[in-house]
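batch_manifest entry 22 of 60
target: Amidohydrolase
source organism: Kineosporia corallincola
requested by: lab member K.T.
priority: normal
notes from requester: please return C-alpha cells only, no post-processing; we will run our own comparison against the previous entry in this batch. if the run fails, retry once and flag.
--- input ---
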Amino acid sequence: MTTPEASGYPPAPTSVLRLYRDLHAHPELSGREHRTRATVREALTGTGAHLRDCGGTGLEAVLRNGSGPVAGFRADLDALPLHEHTGLPYASTVPGVMHACGHDLHTACLTGAMQWLDEHRDAWSGTLVGIFQPAEETGAGALAMLDDGLFETTGTPDVVLGQHVTSAPLGRLLVRPGWFLSSQSSWRVTVSGVGGHASRPHLASDPLLTAVAMVARLQSVVSREVDPFRMAVLTVATFHAGTKENVIPAEAVFTVSARAYEPEVAERLRTAMLRILHGEAAAGGVDLRVEEISHLPAVYNDPAENERVAGALAGVFGAGAVAPPPDPLPASDDFSRYAERLGVPSVIWNFGVHDPALHASGEAVPRNHDARFAPHPTGAVAVGLAGALAVLRERLQ
Ligand SMILES: [Zn+2]
Ligand SMILES: [Zn+2]
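--- output ---
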C-alpha cells in the first residue's frame, strides 16, 4: 500500500483524518446536512474564520488575512441514498445513506486547509471564502448559497476553486483547461390522448404510438443535427405507459436527458428536441406537456487560472502526477453556477484516491456513486489537503 510518507507530500494531521472518518460515518442527504454543518462549524470555531449559515444547510466561512485577492473554495457536504458496502471500520452508520462521491473528503480537506491557513498566516495573504455547500447531488446547493448572500461581505471573488475525488490512483491529479464537465438538462414529457378498448383503436387517440415515435426520432438529433466533432448526448432512460394488454392508455410519460459542453450545442439539443416533440404530437393528434426537471451549465476551467492550479499541484506532487484527463468528463456539477452567476473565473480539478496497487491489479476499481467506493484510508485526505493548500497558497499572495 502506498503511503503519503513515501510519496513526497505530507501526511494529513490526525485531527483531519478523524474529521473525515466522522463525516464518513455520519452521511446526510442533500439539503439535510445539519450534523455535517455543525461538525464543520465546531472544527472551525476557534480559528479566525467568520462563520455564517448560508443557503439552507450550507456554511460560509470567511478567513481574512490582510490585503490581497479574494478566493472562494467550494466543498460539497452531501451524501447519496445508497447502502454502503465497503466493510470499512468507519463505514456509514446510517442505513441507506453513504458518502459514495467523496464529499466527506472535500469537506474534511477544506476544513483542514482553513485550520492550517489560520495557524500559518505568514504563508499567505488575502481573503479565503470557504464555501461549504449543501445539495450538490441535487444540483440545488450552489444557487441556494448564491441567493443567500454568499460573498456579500467580501465582494465578488477573484476566482472560485474546488476539487473532486475520482477513482484514479492516489496522487494522480487531473487538471484540464477549458471544458471540464458537461452541462446537464432533463425533461419530463407527458403525451396525452384518449384511452379506450384495445379492440377499438379508432375510438381512442393512442398516446403510446406517438410517444414511441418521439423516442425513436429523438435519436436522430445527435446523429443528424450536431457537428460530429462536438460532444452531445441525448438519452431517454424512462418510459411509462399502460396497465393492461387490452387497454389503450390515456397517457404516456418519458424522460429525456441531454449533455453537452458548448452552450450552443446544449441549446441545439433543446430546440431540436422540442421541435420533434411538437411535430410528432401534431402528427399524432395528441396533447403534449414538456417540463424541465433539471438544468446545470457545463464547468469551464479558466485557462490562466488553470495554469496556476496545475503549477501549484505540480510543485507538491511532481509534474508527472499532474495531467489532463484524455477528454472532458461527461459528468456534471453545480460548481458551474459560481462562474455563471458571478462572472468570475473558476477551476475545479480531480484527485485520485485509490491505492495504485488496486489499479495495477487490473481489477475493476469501484468508482464514485458505487456502494463499494472506498478511498485510501489515509492517503486520500493527505492528497486532498496538500492539493488544496498548495493551490490556495499560490493564489492567495
Ligand atoms: Zn456525485
Ligand atoms: Zn460529487
